[in-house]
Design goal:
Elements: H1 2-8, E1 18-27, E2 33-41, H2 52-62, H3 72-77
Antiparallel strand pairs: 1-2
């Protein structure tokens, strides 16, 4: 993350000129560290003002993936599967806001 923060400060950053960056470090069980970040990019389309197509084009320009190019082990651990832990207090919705596939039915455990 230290290298990524340094990269963010460069003038020719991947997403363009950054107006502001915010990062928060969280620790999960077994002291597993991970970061959440928010980047404010100059000249990025604005939700509610710009068209959905402009926003989609901006996102697709920088954020995309191809499962065929990823290692199978990576896909296995980075794919969300609805389990007991994604439903809080026996609610039939995923607390991580992952959609249900049409063939899936929310089940209580």
């Amino acid at each position: 993350m230290k290298s990524f923060h340094t990269l963010c400060m460069k003038n020719n950053f991947i997403f363009g000129h950054l107006l502001k960056k915010i990062f928060v470090t969280n620790f999960q069980s077994h002291e597993s560290q991970h970061d959440h970040g928010l980047l404010y990019v100059a000249n990025a389309p604005i939700y509610g003002l710009d068209s959905n197509n402009a926003i989609e084009d901006f996102v697709e320009k920088y954020i995309s993936y191809d499962n065929n190019k990823l290692a199978p082990k990576f896909c296995e651990v980075q794919t969300h599967r609805h389990k007991k832990t994604c439903r809080k207090k026996n609610q039939p919705i995923c607390r991580f806001n992952f959609p249900w596939l049409p063939i899936e039915k929310p089940q209580f455990f």
